[in-house]
Amino acid sequence: MNPRAAFALLGAVLLALFVVGDVRRRAGLGAAGRRFFRHPPAAWGLFILTFFLTVALAAPWVAPYGPSITLEIVALKNQPPSLLHPLGTDLYSRDVWSRLVYGSRVSLSIGALAMLVAVTVGAVVGAVAGYVRRWVDTALMRLVDVGLAVPRIFLLLMAIALWEHLPLALLVLLIGLTGWFGTSRLVRAEVLTLRERDFVAAARAAGAGAPRIIFRHILPNVAAPIIVSAALGIGNVMLLEAGLSFLGLGVPPPMPSWGNMIADGAAQLATAPWTTLFPGVAIALVVMALNAVGDALRDAFDPRRATA
Amino acid sequence: MAAWLVRRVAASGAIVFAVVTFTFLLLHLAPGEPFLPGADTPIDPAVVTQLRHQFGLDAPLPVQYAKYLVALAHGRLGESFALHRPVADALADAIPNTLALAGAALALDLLLGLALGVYQAAHARRLPDVGLGYVTLFLNSVPTFWLGLLLLLVFGEWLGWFPVGGVVDPVVHASLPWAGRAADRLWHLALPALTLGCVGAAGTARYQRAAVLEVVSQDYVRTARAKGLPERRVLLVHTLRNALLPLVTLFGLSFPFLLTGAVLVESVFAWPGMGKLAADAIFRRDYPIVLAAAIAASVMVVLGNLLADVLYAVADPRIRVHGE
A235 to chain B: which residues are within 8 Å by CB? Predict the structure, then answer.
């Protein structure tokens, strides 16, 4: 690792610490913020997320080498972690830390984008089903039943394996389109109770149409459970991407994603375990952080929930 | 209850039917063909035509679909394109392996998860709870197959305590006595089941801890404590009975998780189960196997949900099913 990269890494850590401290100070002023930080893992989670976000954005500075640069194919192949290569090198003599840094861009954006698709579709379907009810509700919820009856990885395997050489954007879209079923049930349940409230009746009396009532009056009130399920869902997508890559169907090499780094390393597990170990640790850290923050957000949004 | 059950079973059947239809369309409308003279597998075009005719792939799609449904109604799943054997035989070989893996994992998941969750709740917010909380959070967040790879590396490769894959030892298994064969199977099952079970148990423990803590704050528990019952009895008898209810739901929900995990874990441990069969078949465009696997998977998921609903209605007298 060269001084520039080490310095940039230190900067990322300090920035993340500063952000967590700052958020904590501001959040301490409100009841919801205090509930959020009552979970010790929440602060850790926030730190990890900020850190990896910074690293992803500043990848060219934090990474000592490019993501696909083969350094010295004979001499530097499968080197164990050292001062020069903090996480070792892989089969093609590429620096694992650099690939991890650039891989964070791919893995985090796949997680966020696919979740955005899933949450959008899930919220709209759930809201429409819950508000319109009758046959629309029945039809949509039967669709959800069917979607939940096939394990998601089966659906994705079928879709991806059959359409060979799928562009990355379509992969993200597909992951999103197989992940909205749970969210739509959640949103529908909330909407079913909200639609009977007086403020909805008032909006209707004032002449608002169904789309306006759904999007301007009802959905903002369902924001909290949607945000929580999104935070937990991003982690799920990242795990799914890793699994698909392991089966050879995720992000195509040489572009590094944490999933395909594990998959590449798995073939030489016994000779160079670090190539498998570290990307997995990175996924575990981010997913842990998302789960911790999601749990804490759930408590922060809901004052009645027993604090555990 | 009977009428409700009939309706639920009918709805479950409809779901499986929809899955069959959807899978059929997805497979046949996708670009690509199961028999293609590729660069590495040169086939005479005449043979391709003959193969397509033999498997009925040259018929119009609605006809193929109708034929498939009729065969399915007679309990025929067809011939595999690639394995040169009936699909039913291939499934019959794979399903017991997956059931053994998923069953062992589920048992570990529920027992370990329950024990950990209750233990954590009993020590809520103290060191054992906080420590275990981080452990379960970690296990709940790792890719299942990555955990499998690590266990494989440590216990299979470095320590050599467990075999690195397969269902039985290919060399000595046949020559072992009855007890030895059973032990051989268990020995091979240990690592994959541990992988899948630990990840599941972490989720169950987190869930169960919250459930116990919620019940503990209720008045009747305070009463039980007030009349001087030992804490062990309050927790394990009075509280646990009600705190077990969410576990019933979790049991039903864990089927998709187990099947998904099985696809990857079976790959890691070279475990010849349904997940591996289906994944291989998808890559080979072996439509009959993929369809049969989709049916089997959706039947398992739907049965799991049905079982959970029935158990819930039986376990909780407050639940009133519709139409009663």
Answer: 141
